[in-house]
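worker-03 picked up job from queue 'complexes'. Input manifest follows; two sequence lines, order preserved.
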Amino acid sequence: MDFFLNQELNLINFLVFFLSALALLFIVLFFVMYAIYGQRKILGWMQGRIGPNRVGPYGLFQTAADVLKLLLKEDVIPAKADRSLFLIAPIVAFAPAFAVLAVMPFTDRIHFADIGVGLLYYIGISSISTIGVLMGGWASNNKWALIGAMRAVAQMISYELPLVIAALGVVLMAGSINLIDIVHAQQNMWNIIPQFLGFVVFFIASISELNRTPFDLTEAESELIAGYQTEYSGFRFAFFMLAEYTYLFAMGALVTVLYLGGWYPPLPILGFIPGWIWFLVKLLLYVFMPFWFQATFPRVRVDQLMEFAWKVLLPLSLLNIVLTAFIKAVF
Amino acid sequence: MIRTEEMLLNVGPQHPSTHGVFRMVVKVDGETIVEARPVIGYLHRGTEKLAENLNYTQIIPYTDRLDYLSSMINNYVLVHAVETFMGIEVPERAEYLRVIMMELQRIASHLVWFGTYLLDLGALSPFLYAFQEREKIVSLFNEISGARLTYNYMRVGGVKWDIPDEGWLTRVQKFIDEFKGKLEGYHTLVTGNEILQARLKGVGKYDKETAIQYSLTGVNLRCTGVNYDVRKDKPYSIYDRFDFEIPTSEDGDLWSRYLLRMAEMEQSRRIVEQALKQFPKSGEIMGKVPKVIRPPEGETFVQVEAPRGEIGVYIYSKGKPQPYRLHFRRPSFINLQILPKLLVGENIANMVAILGGIDIVLGEVDG
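worker-03 finished. Artifact:
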């Protein structure tokens, strides 16, 4: 990829970029399909039931069948909804989720854009999804959707802070916000060891950013029906789901890059296994955690959620920076 | 100062957490409730009026449908009222069967509450775990009564069916033995969870005086420290033969109500265990009952402890095979009255928790 990235833009370059983006999209779609399948199977296993087992061998085509069903569903738009906003909201929610993958280094060779401000780009772009959610909730002209959207904005903004500040510890360690440099800096020791406090804060905040249990307040079905998604049906609803699971993929990749040593194996003797496999294993390990939480945790209350972000995670993430700076200065 | 605009929000009747067809019209300021008004009647079937045209045995199936999570106990309260009214003797074997049924029913009802309550709080797994256990009870009921929800099992003077085979008692014993471990499992998974405790402790609190003023019964009353349980205070059937406790708490909040229901399941388990030990090997399941049940002229009121509190039956008889007037004191309906008082000033998330904490069944609220 580096070869093309360093050339001037011409038709061949453009085609290469376009086709590889398309390939990545299919990889992501494949991931989303099987993340949903995996989630249902894992939950089924933890809850003493079977999970999908009818469509295809072991129910492997269940998600594909679900997508087909969603495609065929009636496209309902509430009569008094703000039509244009209602229509573009799912796209605004999904596009940034996919765009952030551009800077993700899957191995030292497989990556799209090698930009100096990779981490900043990720954080900046991913925030745009909040606007999509707010648009959806506002445009639905439904009180539940509105409350859900307001909650979503409050939650995402509040947790963005400890998330970013916790990641600053990693930046201090690597001395760069280029994601590839950050992975290279972990060649000898993964950041999860020296940056453990930062990792814990980042991990919790990332679960909240993904709107997953116990922080799934934005769509809390037992409180807000379905929150900002209440009025969405069929394929538009699927788009919100797609955005959610694409973020799961992106966040898993980011955690792998920042804390789990990216494509590096845990021990040098395991180096014969390709880097992308290590990356995938670590990513999937992260993805497993929210599914596990989903089977075990009840949901927190909205005021507790806010308190936790501002009174617990934020001070801890600040402490982490001070400690990191101190350790860097002394050793 | 920032001025905010209040919003009128319809919670239910289709809301997933209104436990059936309950509706609340709440005025919210942001997510804080300023005013709440419950609206009921979506499931009203006129049971009491219908009863006036039916003879007493024909009324039994209607009691099944009142509180469909406690059909056995609802069956019992009606036949018990008629029995006390007419002075009918019930054979011992039937009494033991009734107690086993009623206590299993209490466990089953609390299990549904436990599962759905945690669903209200955003946890799915406990719901599935609880329903797996409830399923076992329902299957036991199915074997003996032929039905899985509306059992229509009790009769004036006894019960309709004897045990299907000797193995049935063994299967009840097996369930009771296993259930102890399951309860411990629930405590490990759920009760010890920090998030759950943070959600429930100190929320939806009221004191003893308020509880009595609102004539709350069941766990909703006992959570304020009042030790009142019909099984102990006005013993009926053969409850005086068993050793069990009435769990109470002083806190009066959601957390204490949660703990009490969990403790009650354990006590019911103990009662069934003892009932199985004392179960008479043989005997009649039906007492001497006249062909046409015709209570004497006059009135009677009989109470029984249901999972949701005290259920009572008032019968006014003019000496005919049909009651002149029949009224049910339905615990869900009465317990629900405190809801608007508890909701003001709470968050929407707490609204769901408080409503679930009262533990209502809409069939009973609407009657």
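worker-03 released lock.
Chain A has 13 helices and no strands.
The interface with chain B takes residues 43, 46-49, 143-144, 147, 150-151, 213-214, 216-217, 220-225, 294-304 of chain A (CB under 8 Å).
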